[in-house]
Amino acid sequence: FVLVIALTTYLSVVVGELVPKQLALRNAVPLSLIMARPMALLSRFAAPLVWLLDSSSAAIIRLFGIRAKGEASVTAEELQMIFAEATRSGVIEDEQRQILTGVVRLAERPVREMMTPRTEVDWIEADAEAEEIRETIEESSHSLLLVAEGSPDTILGVVKVREVLGAMVAGSTVSIRAMMRKVEVVPDQLDALDALRVLQSAEVAMAAVTDEYGHFEGIVTPVDLLTAIVGNFASDSDDGDLPSVFEREDGSLLVSGSLSADAMADRLGLDYAEDREFGTAAGYALSVMKKLPAEGEFFIDQGWRFEVVDMDGRRIDKLLVSRENSNTQE
């Protein structure tokens, strides 16, 4: 009797489940064309019975004080698993997977994680004289400059550098205040996709980012959002600058503090909490260390050793990352 049950189960699983599924996967399109009309007719005729069964089960569940859930939704994590599986099976290239993953992440991250921080923003005084205007433009490599009065906390607008240069070449009197355009202001907790919609409808492709108290935090442009999807561009780096992640001869990594937290997670296989409040490698280090570190201090997390090797004032500029076991062996 036991032998019969075991043989029946084996044949049922192999012949009834595994073999048909494999045949269907190998001939998905032809079988889909053949089965589409019968399945559509079956779903139509069975609809009353399906409705009756769903309604009955929902009514019974409500008796226990439990609300029935709506349609099952696909989470961002599930999408990334699908992308990874598609890459392994050769359906998409790894570069395509990285872009798709970046787009999914973009939809769930606040704009403060993609913005250019205040310390790296170039701005110009609204009432600047011709000489100051010329010096500011020479020192800046950007096509747009924020216009402020006294400090970036008093933002008035934004000016296009090419328009200013055009007026200077033509010999006209240049007034930054007269030439400036309106700049959109967005909160730092705004979703990146919502920020993209703001930029699409803005007069100029730049928005100032402020915190909940109205303090200026930085700016966001389409380039910032694109960088969050595909990574940094070589043209954005100055000659002689090290890349955001530099692999040394001993296998350790020299990581820029400004490297995005998502990029570092991809490189090291890190897992962050869903409610994390940092967007860069430096922010990650601060969240773990719970203080402003000094050069030489380190911490160990998720099998990696992170050492602060360079501080730029109160900002973490470089982290040396290595496997925890490699340091203990040394």
Strand content: 15-25%
What's the CATH class of the domain at 112-230, please?
Answer: Alpha Beta
In CATH, the homologous superfamily of the domain at 112-230 goes by the name CBS-domain
Low-confidence stretches: none
Give a written overview of the molecule.
Helix 3 runs antiparallel to helix 4. The chain starts with a helix and ends with a helix. It is 47% helix and 19% strand. A hairpin with a 1-residue loop joins strand 3 (144-149) and strand 4 (151-160). Among the domains are: 76-107, no CATH class; 112-230, CBS-domain; 245-323, Uridine Diphospho-n-acetylenolpyruvylglucosamine Reductase, domain 3, CATH 3.30.465. It is of the alpha+beta class and 330 residues long. It is built from twelve helices and twelve strands. The protein has helices at 2-26, 28-63, 76-88, 94-108, 130-139, 161-169, 176-179, 192-201, 222-230, 261-268, 281-289, 324-329, and strands at residues 116-117, 123-125, 144-149, 151-160, 184-187, 207-210, 216-220, 245-247, 253-256, 298-301, 304-312, 315-323.
